[in-house]
Amino acid sequence: MDLADLFSRLPYVEMMGMEVVEAEDGYAEVAVEMKDEFSSNPTRHVAHGAVPYALADTAGGAAVVSLTHGPSPTVDMRIDYLEPMTGDARAEAEVTRLGQSTAVVDAVVLQEDSEIALARGVYKAGEVESGTPHDWNRGEYQS
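RE: above sequence
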């Protein structure tokens, strides 16, 4: 199974309507169509900040998994919002450092070609203890 397909089947990704467009070689792209349900304002079509955050986080995790082939729970993420999300958007993420236990990822969230948010995330990159919520069947994804 292709990594983009695996991520696209995750319940949260499906619920949000996100599409993992690409995930390989430490890079990932995730897209989402704007929905009325995302709006944080009853009188304007503007997405809650959690939507661009979710795009950046999902793309970051997929970028790490494309290198480690194992679970990559988020340790920490910082995001700077530059403009409101008012339409369809996508996130592009790239692993900037892969260590033995963590990975650092930089992500940009774009609406058309305009940057609307910048994020930096830290993800678990080493072995995840068996029996934890982040344990998974490594056989589901083969590189």
